[in-house]
Description:
Largest sheet: 5 strands, parallel
CATH architecture: 3-Layer(aba) Sandwich
CATH superfamily: P-loop containing nucleotide triphosphate hydrolases
Strand order of the largest sheet: 2-3-1-4-5
Number of strands: 5
Shape: globular
Amino acid sequence: MSKNFTITMGRECGAGATHIAQTLSKDLGINYYDKDIFRMVSDKSGVLEEFFRVHNERSGNNLLYRLVRDMKPADQKPSLGKDIVSPENLFRFQSELIRELAENESCIIIGRCADYVLRDYEHIVRIFVCGDAESKIHRMMQTYSLEHDAAIDRIRETDKQRHKYYNYYTGGTWDSARNYDLCLNTGDMTIQDAADLIKCYLRQKGYIE
């Protein structure tokens, strides 16, 4: 590898992003971070891990925060005051850790508005993984042993929450192609196919040989 880089991976529920990240991690010899970020940021902040899990990819409900978001962006330093476990402050703790990871190693970061958090950083590859409805339903049924209708409900609710979360903290649209460098529809490809396409893109950009 010629230089450190960070892959951020937004994803629709059931599109296979976690499996793609696992494959890339193995193929490239770099770490990938998903829900283990909760433990890491808990260790760093002293805030119980459960607080981060409860608010995982769920928007806050603070109207004032939404109104002043551009004046006081979510990437300011976390507060250690009485609002330490507010959803907005938990997001700041998480964002601080994401920036530290990007600054110190090549890695893959799944979700958590990482494309937005690292928007001013160099050597960031922003990827969005999507898929057709039937392929996502089938993958969810296989992965989580869900019935067909339960898989549909899980996908619908998860993607709804991810859309609200992204909009709340970034002011942008979660599944807008313009937010990303590369969008992959995994409906007609294997996990390895998707990982290979991403590696091809990384090779073209000079991140890997």
